Amino acid sequence: MEEKPTAGPVLRESATFPPRVVAEVHRAADEGVYEIRGFGAKRRLPTFDDLVLLGASISRYPLEGYRERCDTDVTIGTRFAKRPVHLKIPVTIAGMSYGSLGTRAKGALGQAATMLGTSTTTGDGGMTDEERAASKTLVYQVLPSRYGMSPDDLRRADAIEVVVGQGAKPGGGGMLLGQKVSERVAAMRDLPVGVDQRSASRHPDWTGPDDLQIKIEELREVTDWQKPVYVKVGATRVKYDVMLAVKAGADAVVVDGMQGGTAATQDVFIENVGIPTLPAVRLAVEALQELDMHRKVQLIVSGGIRSGADVAKALALGADAVSIGVAALLALGCNRAEHVADYRALGTAPGYCHHCHTGRCPVGVATTDPALEQRLDVDVAARRVRNFVSTMVLETTTLARACGKSHVRNLEPEDLAALTVEAAAMARVPLAGTDWIPGWGKSG
Amino acid sequence: MPPAPAAEEFDLATVAIRDLNAALHAVPHGTNRRHFRVTNPRGAHSIAVGLTEPVQVDVMGPTGYYCAGMNKNATIEIHGHAGPGVAENIMSGVVRVRGNASQYAAASGRGGLVIIEGDAATRCGISMKGVDIVVGGSVGAMSAFLAQRGTLVVLGDAGENLGDSLYEARIFVRGKVASLGGDCVAKEMRANHLAKLDRLLKAAGFDADPGSFTRYGSARKLYHFHADQADHY
Ligand code: SF4
């Protein structure tokens, strides 16, 4: 006789302790250490998706898509540097270290940036010859750890970026787990091979804005005032930080929102520290405007930028350029459905991977393992990044033309409306269909 | 042999720092212009930074921040006290401070020799990566914090948390140590350490018995995370 199906037990999930939290409690109980991972914030956050652009109609003229020009170039470092950086597009490649990424991934990013007429950036581990050779315009980061820091590299860079913090971990130091500290990485960082590298969250030779000003002057003296000096901050108290960076003499300020990526950081840090990119842009622009420095000190915004729509909205809010990290890695091949068994071995799957910290990157991007690195074809990967960023730029100009702009920098807050009350308050643009900006009464 | 040319002088009462550094950077490779004197420094910042040639620079008085920063090959002597970050990120060459040095002396230095004849303040040798530092007096708290490579020699005493989160740098102290930082421990002094210390003391011009020093180094317990060491993180 056939058995009658019986109703199973009714499973009731706890809102406070859902299965994901239960699993994390068990993991911490077993291991006694916080979770460290790569990628960026995974929680839902207010984003540029919560804004829309107001295309032209009768009150504004759009530009014709295939006939009328919409320019995209940007110059960074016009304040003090003798040799500002001229970029063809307002999308740059963010700092990612050799060590967190392999030589081939760094080389591919450099090649792509060169094809695109934009810049790429070193990271917390110094400059490699391969990266310098591949990149026409290379920004050299000066970080708290000072790994591989060399005046020769300062001199051969095109711009200098003093990194105070990054969006994934404002206030946190660097981290590279032992499995990624290969012989070459260790030699470049003056560390023993295979140690879990812990590095400082504060610079070793300055504290506070007055010191920073003197530090920037020293960097300029060493490089004979040739190169633009950027200051990068993780988005927290953005208004103060941007003002202090400007006061300290920055040519450009990079503001990295909490969606910004990382190769290895505590999950608790990634998900809980900092503010999203959306309000960070507006706060940074306000700081520059208050100092009458908007467009004189360039603003580069990063943290979760994925598309031309994001670029257009960031520029409309007042940024001069954006920087991409995770999106560039995805374009390289990160999270592609190749070598699926290797994702599985890491306990993940294509589309979900955040395992850069392991050094076992299935697609050869976030690894220095020679065998895994071979999986990345540099030319193919560079072309993919070139294609992706070109698409972003095409999308940006499409949207800018629709708003009647002959240069993407002419996009303005007036071209935006918000879809949520939160986004309206954060971006300080009116809620769509109203003239209401929460906290500010009526717009205009 | 023709006599060495007299020292070229830069009087910072009338010459801007920019012009001084530009002139020092413009010294041609292999030149016989080898000796420079900087007078009236009066605490100015960034004096003689980013040099690359094996020249001698005498700074005749107290300096501000970052004097001799990122030095390569040059010998720079400060005839007075040095402000914060003297010889920061030094790559090679020699920097000598005739007086005391403020905080962060030789921070993140990757090579060369830094001699401080007086005392050094807090964080001397912080993040050092290969530089040798010899301090005639005492060093302040948090000295050799996160020190990775190189040697710190202290003829006097050391302040609190010496060598905190140390990697592979070596520390030799002759006097008292207020306290050791996380993962820093006293270690046995072997023949090779005595020889190295002797060489460094001689190079720095100090007459001291290497046997009277104690060696400190990393216990290497923080090299790989272990739950039982969590208090140190
Ligand atoms: S695929 Fe590679 S680069 Fe992408 S998240 Fe995984 S480990 Fe990191």
Structural key phrases:
heterodimer; A: 444 residues; alpha/beta; TIM Barrel; eight-stranded parallel beta sheet; two-stranded antiparallel sheet; 18 strands; globular; B: 233 residues; mainly beta; eleven-stranded mixed beta sheet; 10% helix; binds iron/sulfur cluster
Structure write-up:
The complex is a heterodimer of chains A (444) and B (233). With 444 residues, chain A is of the alpha/beta class. Chain A has a single domain (39-411), classed as TIM Barrel, CATH 3.20.20. Chain A contains 15 helices and 18 strands. In chain A, the strands form 6 sheets. In chain A, strands 5-15-14-12-11-8-7-6 form an 8-stranded parallel sheet. In chain A, helix 3 (129-134) links the parallel strand 6 (119-121) and strand 7 (137-142). In chain A, helix 7 (238-247) packs across helix 9 and helix 11 (326-332) packs across helix 14. The termini of chain A are far apart. Chain B has 233 residues and is mainly β. Chain B has one domain. Chain B is built from 2 helices and 11 strands; from the N terminus they run E-H-E-E-E-E-E-E-E-E-E-H-E. An 11-stranded mixed sheet of chain B has the order 1-2-3-4-5-6-7-8-9-11-10, covered by helices on one side. In chain B, strand 1, helix 1 (17-25) and strand 2 form a beta-alpha-beta unit. The longest helix of chain B is centred in the last third of the chain and has 14 residues, at 191-204. Chain B is elongated and about 60 Å long. In chain B, 54% of the residues are buried. The A-B interface holds A 31-33, 145-146, 149-152, 154-155, 178, 189-192, 195-196, 198-200, 204-206, 211, 214-215, 217-218, 221-225 and B 17-18, 21-22, 25, 45-46, 49-50, 52, 64-66, 69-70, 72, 84-85, 88-89, 91, 104, 107-108, 110, 123, 126-127, 129-130, 145-146, 148-149, 165, 167-168, 222-225, 227-228, 230, 233. Bound molecules: iron/sulfur cluster. Iron/sulfur cluster binds next to strand 1 of chain A.
